[in-house]
Structure formats: C-alpha cells, structure tokens
Request: fold
Amino acid sequence: MVKNAGGNKLNKIAISGKGGVGKTTLSALLAHIYAEKARPKEQEVIAIDADPAGGLAQALGFPPDLQAQVTPISEMEDLIFERTGARPGEYGGFFKLNPRVDDIPERFSVSHRGIRFLRLGTIDIGGSGCICPESALLKALVTHLLLYRDEMMILDMEAGVEHLGRATAQAVDVLLVIIEPGRRSLTTAARVKKLANDLGIQHVYAVGNKVRGESDWVFMKEESSVPTLGYLSANQELMDADIRGTGVFDTAPTAVEEARSIARALGDWVVG
Ligand SMILES: Nc1ncnc2c1ncn2[C@@H]1O[C@H](COP(=O)(O)OP(=O)(O)OP(=O)(O)O)[C@@H](O)[C@H]1O
Ligand SMILES: [Mg+2]
Reply:
C-alpha cells in the first residue's frame, strides 16, 4: 500500500481554484466515486466543506433534513468555549492552542450513502490571519482529520491555500486546482501551485472545467504550467442540478464518467 512520510495512506485530497470555477462540483463527484470504492470495505469517505459560503452538502445530494442538522463548527460557540476556554471574538485572552477534537468528526457530522459530511465554516487555520479560539479549534480539527484519520478525505476549499498552516498543508497528499478555459485561471493556478509547494504540498495537479470542446482542452494542456489530470465538460446537467438543488452524482451522468477518468488518473498512487 502507498503511504506518505507519516505512514498514512495517500488519500487526502484538497480542491481549490478561483471563485465559481467548479470546486464544489468536483468535490461532490469525487466524494461519491471514492465512496463507491470504499463501500465494499465498509469504509466511509469524509467530505469537508471548508468554504465559508458552503454548498457542498447540496452538491452531494444530502437530503434537506440532514443538511439542516449541520452547523458550521466555527459557529458553535459553546463547543469552542468548552474546548478552548474562550469564546469566539475574544481576542487577546488565554485559550488552549491544542484543544481536544477527536470526537468532533463523529458528533457534528452527518452521514449519507457512505459519505460523512462536516462543515467547518469560516476558516483560518494557521495562516497569518486571526489568532483566536475558533481558528485554534478548526486548525486542531483539520490537522487531526488529515493526520490521524485513515479514511479518504475530500476537502472543498476556498480559492487559495494561504489560509492553511504549514502542518496542515503538509498533511494534504494532493491538491487539485481547477482551471477553466482562459488565461486568468491558468495564472491563478500557477500562483496557487507555487504557494502550495512553498507550504509543503508536493503533488499539485490542474483539472479543467467547463471545457466546451477539444480546442479548450488542448489550450489548457498546452498552456497550463501546472500538470493537467483531466477535465469536466461544460455541461447543462450540472447547471440544472444547481438550479434544482439536487446532487450532481445522480443528475449529471456525463460529469460522473469524466470525474471517474480524473480519479483514474490520480489512481496510480492515491489509495481510495
Ligand atoms: N462543467 C460545468 N458545466 C456547467 N456548469 C458548471 C460546470 N461546473 C460547474 N458548473 C456550475 O458553475 C457554478 C459554480 O460551480 P461550483 O459551485 O462547483 O464552483 P465553486 O468553485 O465551488 O464556486 P465557489 O467559489 O462559489 O465555491 C454552479 O452553478 C455549477 O453548477
Ligand atoms: Mg464552492
């Protein structure tokens, strides 16, 4: 079995890219694809919504009542107080920097069709930003999930990786940066890759999205300085899924097949 330096399986995938590029869509597709693989082994995939704006639970097709049960960890004031000794917004006071978090994934997540879903909320885990109780809790939680949980994990992030601390970033096995047909997204991807490498993420790949035909894909493959793994075509089914608020895995079969190719391209060394 393939393992990283810490002895863990290589199975922690983070997904980034500029706003609206398709991070949540690809995260949801890959989570279901890996959940299918994990099912015979009676394992789950952990899908983490690390984007303050949310949206992953819907793209995953979680039933509304389950979605409603999930509160972002960053908004759980009592939990933050219980674990760190301080309340969100209390700056300058004392609080624990390594609070207990090992029970949080089970207690505050919901599970559906082999996917355990956890929503972090507004997140600043170790970057230069705020030093406050909620970020201490989130940082400890994400580092715990990445380092000590064995499951395949998909992390749907915001645009960049600058909010990841070095310890957290180094535990990410692969970063997928989504690009779309256009030079601006290629520039963003190159910048994200450099930052990710600087933080210690070794494997960074680009995934094309909203590809309208062969020439778009050729453009991306030839012009991207970040190695490309595969792509999702521009697809009415995905737009319809978002309009109807349904999960992408069940409503966009073409995208599912394309995402399977992306998973296969990763498969040489990612253990699902
Ligand atoms: N291949 C595609 N074809 C058509 N529409 C797509 C495609 N991929 C994503 N979309 C649509 O584009 C919109 C943005 O996608 P998505 O939410 O996955 O992006 P995001 O990067 O997570 O955005 P945000 O930065 O807001 O979190 C959604 O309405 C989605 O349905
Ligand atoms: Mg998103």
